[in-house]
Amino acid sequence: MELVEFAQRVVEANGDGEVHTVGAAVRDAQGRMFGGINLYHFTGGPCAELVALGHARAAGARDLTAIVAVGDTGRGVLAPCGRDRQVLLDYHPGIRVLVPAADGIRSVSITDLLPHAYVWGEQSAASDGALCSAAMQALHFHRSYLDAVRTGRKTTTVRFRDPVETGPVNMVFELDDEVVLSGVVTQITSKSVAELTEADAVADGFRDLAELQDRLRFHYPDIKSTDDATIVHFRLTR
């Protein structure tokens, strides 16, 4: 309950009801508590739990034993999202998570909270017997683009200061229930914002270049016509 109260104090003191709406707290083996608050953003801004993990690491904590998230406006304890569960399992497999239950708040091991978990990265034995792994890259989209991608109206995305590589990609759409589509980045080209064309706009799922320019300014308020933009060409694989 001390951990819950700590997380609640974090969100009550620092929440704004729009971007920062969830507080989290993590405890290490020495009993120290570290807080975090979420940073909502359509490109996949971190949940409060992940911020708390980063805070703990920055403060020198290594052996983390328990974590909890609390929503603002009296929403109480919140269960972690799927992404957070995977991160917790990958990096802190011994941690326990406080979750809401019919009879109150329960402490659950992360392995029980994420049964039959996905093992990220294809692992293969190298010639020297060492193991090497490669994680799938993710490309985050605003929720409004889901239908255009699914129907094939949108086959490119123009990005600014957002490194992307060719190859397999998980396309993540930031809805209330996160949607992930499997795809592949087939080509990456670069040109200045001023050099973008009507054809670029149509391939990106927009009516015309003016609409594309408007959306770029919406997503990247500090973008300038002289800045280089990256055009990411992709296709769905299923």
TrEMBL record:
One Pfam short name: ASCH
InterPro entries from the UniProt entry: ASCH_domain, CMP_dCMP_dom, Cytidine_deaminase-like, PUA-like_sf
Gene3D superfamilies given in the database record: Cytidine Deaminase, domain 2 (3.40.140.10), Hypothetical protein (2.30.130.30)
Highest taxon, organism lineage: Bacteria
Coiled coil start-end: none
Domain CMP/dCMP-type deaminase, residue spans: 1-121
PANTHER family, A to Z: ASCH DOMAIN-CONTAINING PROTEIN (PTHR42250)
Name used for this protein in its record: CMP/dCMP-type deaminase domain-containing protein
Organism whose genome encodes this protein: Streptomyces lasiicapitis
